[in-house]
Amino acid sequence: MSENNVNALSFEFDRSNMFEPLLQADPSFREKWETFQEEYRSDDELPFYLALSELARHLIQDLETGNTHRFDAVFDVVEGWHVKGDPYVKEAATVGLLEDLQNGHLHRKTRSDDFIPWLRPETLGWWTKVHEFWATGKPII
User: Residue 99 and residue 16: Cα distance in Å, rounded?
Assistant: First the structure.
């Protein structure tokens, strides 16, 4: 078996299953997820980056209202995307979610760094790379 086939078998998350564990971790996002699916149902592939942007806004709103009791479970899923996701999932979790969580224009009463206590080790590493990219232009690799 080629190395690519072995690596493909080691992925737990891909486009087809990345959102289900998130919806279990945060059922309050389900309505927004269903609206997103309905809106983009005619597309060949759902633009998950847009859904992750919506998730970022949802999490920022929860942070603003102190509704953070699901954050441990949510960021466990995000860590799983980074550790066990295929390349698309890993990139989407970083560029689609973490980048938007760091977008200062989306925060009114909070700061992006307010999310750091919930970030798991791999996710924190990617969080730092996104921050460095915006601060210094250092590529996210």
Answer: 22
DSSP calls for 55-118: HHHHHHHHHHHT--TTHHHHHHHHHHHHHHB-HHHHHIIIIIIIHHHT-GGG-SS--GGGGGGG
Rg of the chain on CA atoms, in Å: 15
Count the Cβ atoms, other than its own, within 10 Å of residue 54: 18
**pLDDT tens digits, one per residue of 41-56:** 888 888 999 999 999 9
Q: What is the mean pLDDT of the chain?
A: 93
d(CA 19, CA 43): 17
Closest by CA position to 9, among listed 18, 1, 17: 1
CA dist 136 and 106 (Å) reads 21
